[in-house]
Amino acid sequence: MSLFKRFASYYKPYKWLFALDMGSAAIASILSVVFPSLTRYLLNTAIPEGNIRLMMIIFGAMLAVYLVQLLTTWIRIKWGHILGVWIENDMRRDIFSHLQLLSFSYYDKTKTGTLMSRITNDLFNIAEVAHHCPEDFLISILTIIAAYVAMFSFSAPLALITLIPLPVMLVYGIIFNGRLKKKNRAVRRTVADIAVDVENSIQGIREVKGYSQERFQEKKFDKSNSRLKETREKYYGVMAAYQSGISFMREMYYFITVAGGAVLISMGVVSVADLLSFILFVSVVLPPIDRLINFTEQFSQGIASFERFAEIMETEPEIKDREGAMALKVTDGAIRFNNVNFSYSKDGKSRTIKDLNLDIPGGKHVALVGESGAGKSTIASLIARFYELDGGSITIDGMDISKVTQKSLHDNIGFVRQDVFLFDASIRENLRYGKSDATDEELYLALKKANLLDFVKSLPSGLDTEVGERGTRLSGGQKQRLSIARCFLKNPPIIVFDEATSSLDTESEALIEEAFKSLRNGRTSITIAHRLSTVIDSDIIFVIDDGVLKEEGDHKSLMEKGGIYARLYRKGGKNEEI
């Protein structure tokens, strides 16, 4: 779909509102030249003839023009802006829905701040363009054309004189408006830099104080603050040149009209009434010129914003459900890797997983161990099909996961990660990500199984306690147990426990291990661990080294074998991380 067609498609549901807005703009443009024309007729005909009745009719017509303009202005301001808001709302809905479909690989390469800017700033620019640009362009062109048609019909010589400053004003305005916008963008970028500095300092306040780096942060902020001051000084310099210059040209427009009109009056070419009406026409023509000056920059900004919007919308998810994909039905929970190859970089030069063959029996508790970077967490991500394989296949109970729906696959797998993500919401809302319609009784039961019920009941607001951004109001162990409670609510047949105790104290680790043992009963469970003491009781331990399965067996047999596992166990000690 072309950029224009995609943009136009957002107008289609509201074409009646767009027509109303454009119709009001057209009527307002035409009416703007009626008042000067009526004034000329009043001065040239009604007043010299002393025709009071005709004067009253003209006054009534003038008042009617103002009343209709009042109505068209109200329509344009209210419904024109609402049109922009509705289009922006549709675009924001579409882009957010599309972002939910994109694969992990997209987010691995894209900054969160960039996406936030697309959803907020870019869409606001697009909404402004959707409303203002068609309206401003139509009003400007129609008003100028209508005004000069009337002016040439009244006095071609004077109309030609008033045309002299127009091209100069347009060129000057467009050039300086572009410079002004460029300086304004520099100011916004500097403001964004300051916002980042403040955000980093506030989020990292514990590190700042812990390392006594307050003065360093102040110097860093002062540098950004000084840069903002200098950028704003340059901006206001350009603004002064632009506004003073355009103001001078406005006055010159009036001056040229008055001077030219005076000369033509002295020559007997035009009347005083013509000159007065032309002065009114000048006041009609100037606002559309301002609109056209601003139109070019606003239009270019809107198009740039829409191009960035379209870029995201045209990004296809790397992982899609295949045609005819079936829902996964887990019975035993047996997982098999068949000659699996995978690389995060799609050039395939550095594979993370290499020709991996792995059998995880249903209902068993298995462990993946190995040095950091061996590929353990990647294996867990591949089971959930968060990334597409480069080769081979993975099956669950004999069903190829690439041939089942992603929703059914994800519904059957639960993750408890080391870096638990909690939403800035209440405990209740965070728990319900496991089961959206869970009752309070179900929530309390899950918390009890996760060894967190007593803590939650001790809180003044209980389940309605806010956990803070990323769960900052909870300890590491409490966040982990809340994550386990969430998994209890989800009740999946397959559980992945990804290094969830590696950074916790002994007491928290014991509580979490107890909760996890309860969680894994009757399920296929996979533990990824550095601390080997947590995997001793596993039914099978898989030793992964550089993406390759090197050893497998229980703790006793692997220790007797004296291979990699035994070396890692002796190297790190049973209670330390390897």
How is this structure best summarized?
This protein is an alpha/beta fold and 578 residues long. Helix content is 64%, strand content 10%.
Indicate the topology.
Layout: H1 3-9, H2 15-32, H3 34-49, H4 52-101, H5 104-109, H6 112-154, H7 156-163, H8 165-203, H9 205-210, H10 214-266, H11 272-313, E1 335-342, E2 353-360, E3 365-369, H12 376-383, E4 391-396, E5 399-400, H13 406-411, E6 413-417, H14 427-431, H15 440-449, H16 453-458, H17 476-490, E7 494-498, H18 506-520, E8 524-528, E9 540-545, E10 548-553, H19 555-561, H20 564-572
Parallel strand pairs: 3-8, 3-9, 6-7, 7-8
Antiparallel strand pairs: 1-2, 1-4, 4-5, 9-10
Helix pairs in contact: 2-4, 2-6, 3-4, 3-11, 4-6, 6-7, 6-11, 7-10, 8-10, 8-11, 10-11, 15-17, 17-18, 19-20
Explained architecture:
This protein has 20 helices and ten strands. It starts with a helix and ends in a 6-residue tail after the last helix. The longest helix has about 55 residues, at about 215-265. Helix content is about 65%, strand content about 10%. It is elongated. The chain has about 575 residues and is of the alpha/beta class. The strands form two sheets. Strands 6-7-8-3-9-10 form a six-stranded mixed beta sheet, with helices on both faces. Strands 2-1-4-5 form a four-stranded antiparallel beta sheet, with helices on one face.
Largest sheet geometry: 6 strands, mixed
SS element count, helices: 20
Number of strands: 10
Helix/strand class: alpha/beta
- As a percent range, the share of helical residues equals 55-70%
Whole-Å distance between the termini? 53 Å
Side-by-side strand order of the widest sheet: 6-7-8-3-9-10
Backbone shape: elongated
Tell me the fraction of residues in β-strands, as a range. Answer: 5-15%
Output the helix-strand order: HHHHHHHHHHHEEEHEEHEHHHHEHEEEHH
Output mean pLDDT: 83
Radius of gyration, CA atoms, in whole angstroms: 36 Å
**Uncertain parts:** 573-578
